[in-house]
Amino acid sequence: MCQKAFGSFFGPLVSASNDRFAWTRGEPAWFQSSNKVRRGFCHHCGTPLAYDWGGPALELAIGAFDNPEAVPPTMQTGLGHRLSWFSRLADLPTRPPEEQAKVDGFLAEVVSFQHPDRDT
User: Fold this and answer.
1) Which of 11, 12, 22, 87 reaches 20 to 30 Å from 68, CA-CA?
2) Other CB atoms within 10 A of residue 42 CB
3) Does residue 32 belong to any structural domain of this protein?
4) Tens of pLDDT along 23-64?
5) Mean per-residue pLDDT for 88-99?
6) Is residue 118, in this structure, part of any structural domain at all?
7) What is the tally of structural domains in the chain?
8) Helix or strand holding residue 46 (H, E)
9) Rounded to whole angstroms, how far apart are CA atoms 41 and 49?
10) Which of the residue ranges 16-25, 38-47, 90-99 would you say has the lowest mean pLDDT?
11) Of 109, 80, 77, 107, the residue nearest 95 (C-alpha)
12) Would residue 115 count as lying in a domain?
């Protein structure tokens, strides 16, 4: 289910106790993705934000945090559904430096219209 909900190979999530968590930029929109789970997403841009299975903790998308480095994953789940080549991604070659410099130049000129990586 994460592949479809995140449009990615996995959905990196971190648990947050419902009594110790608050949304800072308004509530997400919700989609009932199964008979047991609803998923929260940004109603402006569609970014996946949360996985709510009705328990004492909400699962939050690590990549949606302003500082995702501060909330590293602590375990893996669902390995039986992992794509066969995923474990080899880190072994793939990267762009040559001259090509990467061109990409970096392009990215430096991108102006994001998504929310800033800080509270507003």
Assistant:
1) 87
2) 16
3) yes
4) 887 899 999 999 999 999 988 888 899 999 998 889 999 988
5) 95
6) no
7) 1
8) none
9) 5
10) 16-25
11) 107
12) no
Here the tokens at position 120 are: 């507003």
pTM, 2 dp:
0.77
Non-local (6+) Cβ contacts of 110 within 8 A are: none
Long-range contact pairs involving 65-74 (C-beta distance under 8 Å, separation at least 24): 66/117, 66/118, 66/119, 67/117, 71/14, 73/12, 73/13, 73/14
Q: What percent of the chain has pLDDT over 70?
A: 92
Residue 108 placed within a domain: no
Is the CB of residue 59 less than 8 Å from the CB of residue 14? yes
Does residue 22 carry a pLDDT above 90?
A: no
- Exposure string for 84-98, b = 16+ CB within 10 A, e = fewer: eeeeeeeeeeeeeee
Domain carrying residue 24: 2-82
CB 21 within 8 A of CB 64: no
Write down the pLDDT at residue 97: 96
